[in-house]
Write a structure and sequence with these properties.
- By secondary structure, the chain is mainly alpha-helical.
- The protein has four domains: about 1-130, Arc Repressor Mutant, subunit A, CATH 1.10.10; about 140-230; about 250-370, no CATH class; about 385-455, no CATH class.
- It contains 21 helices and ten strands.
- The strands form four sheets. Strands 2-4-3 form a three-stranded antiparallel beta sheet. Strands 6-8-7 form a three-stranded antiparallel beta sheet. A two-stranded antiparallel ribbon has the order 1-5.
- α17 packs across α21 and α18 runs parallel beside α20 (about 435-450).
- About 35% of the residues are buried.
Length: about 475
């Protein structure tokens, strides 16, 4: 939709917003035992609910920012925004009532905002409803609070139904929701939503009151089809607010590393802690990001980044040497020869043992020489895999169809890490409303087309531990010509 907001002046279209249904119920007091909380929401609070859901990530977080940056983005979306003081007052209410968790990072001075009632106990996205971009317009903002509330309620509840039947007088009836007490008052709100407003905006195509035994008891209404949004249409509903950018060169370097490691989706979260990288060299950063991507691919969970980055960057020289081991294709074989040992511990012990045979400043040359010997004598063979190697933790686990895809990946002898990356991408798209069949078909088609580009990793066929083999290559005269 084209609105007269800042987005339009930048050549951007204003798209729908996906609002968490449980969050909406909490914000509108729908599930409160205190009837006075029902519908107790202001214009600014409605706006805040919309903009938070628009600019959050797919896990309901807004990273490395502050209220002022959120307010600036709010003004870019709304044609007629409320004042800054009204916005901050609404923010205070959301934080104080636990609708939004505000957490300050003492290192950076920035905040992470987490929308509550966005993910369920299993960390899966709660049911959400997509609202038309008309909610960002000045025409909608200029309507009465009762009309705005009723349009949001109707949009959130109607689904695929032709209309909604709603009681007037119950504890959670329309009188209480709209803060009205007469049929004429409700009829006035209906007329406003059917076009009797400053902009002539017709949001409802049906709105009537019904009597039983001469008394109005229920209402029937329906959102006009023009303003009903179906998630299956595949619109991009979220526009995550970018963290405040600092150290742009290092952030650009890290972004490229994350993309090359196949975990570009971590860019926002890593960017939140860019200040932790400011004193690290590029080779150390490369190894920290590599370790992060490995942990994420193996577990499907992002570790606590502050602790992880600090821990990974303490032994700088060791990280530089580990990075050299990866550069020459040796690091993966270290892990293979130390099965059952934590990857980080295995690499640490490897560097310690190599340094016992070779001076630190010559280890890089030793790695290069060893790689040449391995390639010359064909000492690499594909690893053996089982179906369990293709198992990963995604939303697709609950569907039987994914087992056939994993079996096909094994038959094609595809690198399990590459396959897991594809499945996580499919699971992410599934959260946006697509069908399981669509993603199963896409996965099968993708692995069939790309199997030759992502073969199984290879392992070394040597009898002795890798550090001893490297020492032999470095010290024995037979290898002097390499």
């Amino acid at each position: 939709m084209i609105l007269l907001n800042e987005l339009t002046f930048k050549g951007e279209e204003t798209k729908p917003v996906a609002v968490s249904f449980p969050f909406y119920k909490k914000a509108f007091g729908m599930d409160s035992s205190d009837k006075e909380k029902l519908g107790k929401i202001t214009h600014a609070e409605i706006d805040l609910m919309l903009i938070l859901h628009k600019i959050c990530s797919t896990n309901g977080k807004i990273l490395s920012t502050n209220r002022h940056q959120i307010f600036r983005r709010y003004k870019a979306y709304f044609e007629k925004p409320c004042t800054q003081s009204q916005f901050y007052k609404a923010f205070d209410r959301f934080v104080s009532e636990g609708l939004v968790i505000e957490k300050k990072d003492e290192d950076s001075g920035l905040y992470t905002y987490t929308i509550q009632h966005f993910l369920n106990k299993n960390k899966v996205t709660e049911r959400y409803v997509c609202l038309s971009p008309i909610v960002f317009s000045s025409a909608f903002h200029s309507m009465t609070l009762a009309a705005r509330k009723l349009f949001i309620v109707a949009s959130m509840r109607q689904g695929n139904n032709s209309y909604i039947v709603y009681p007037l007088k119950s504890e959670k009836g329309l009188y209480q929701l709209l803060r009205k007490n007469q049929p004429a008052h409700v009829q006035s709100v209906f007329r406003e939503l059917q076009g009797e407003n400053k902009a002539g905006l017709v949001l409802f195509n049906k709105a009537s009151l019904f009597k039983k035994r001469g008394v109005y008891t229920d209402v029937v209404f329906s959102v006009d089809s023009k303003y009903r949004i179906a998630p299956a249409e595949g619109d991009r509903f979220r526009d995550p607010l970018k963290p405040v950018m600092r150290y742009p060169r290092k952030m650009n370097f890290i972004s490229k590393l994350l993309a090359s490691e196949g975990v570009a989706e971590l860019q926002e979260e890593v960017g939140s802690f860019i200040h932790l990288f400011k004193r690290l060299g590029y080779r150390v950063i490369r190894q920290v990001i590599r370790e992060l991507s490995i942990v994420f691919k193996e577990t499907g969970v992002v570790p606590h980044l502050v602790d992880f980055i600090k821990k990974q960057s303490t032994r700088k020289k060791e990280k530089e040497l580990v990075d050299l081991a990866y550069e020459h294709g040796l690091a993966e074989h270290v892990v293979h020869f130390h099965k059952g040992v934590d990857r980080e511990d295995a690499l640490h012990q490897f560097i310690v043992k190599v340094s016992e045979y070779i001076p630190l400043h010559k280890i890089g040359k030793a790695f290069k020489k060893t790689k040449k010997v391995i390639d010359t004598h064909g000492l690499l063979q594909p690893i053996e895999v089982t179906l369990d190697d293709y198992q990963t933790y995604t939303r697709l686990n609950r569907y039987q169809e994914i087992l056939a895809v994993r079996l096909r990946a094994k038959q094609l002898q595809i690198d399990p890490s590459y396959y897991k990356q594809l499945e996580k991408q499919a699971s992410y798209e599934l959260e946006l409303g697509s069908t399981v069949k669509d993603h199963v078909d896409w996965l099968l088609k993708t692995i069939e087309a790309n199997a030759h580009q992502h073969p199984l990793p290879e392992r070394l066929t040597i009898a002795e531990p890798l550090h001893e083999f490297i020492a032999s290559v470095w010290n024995r005269p037979i290898f002097n010509n390499y």
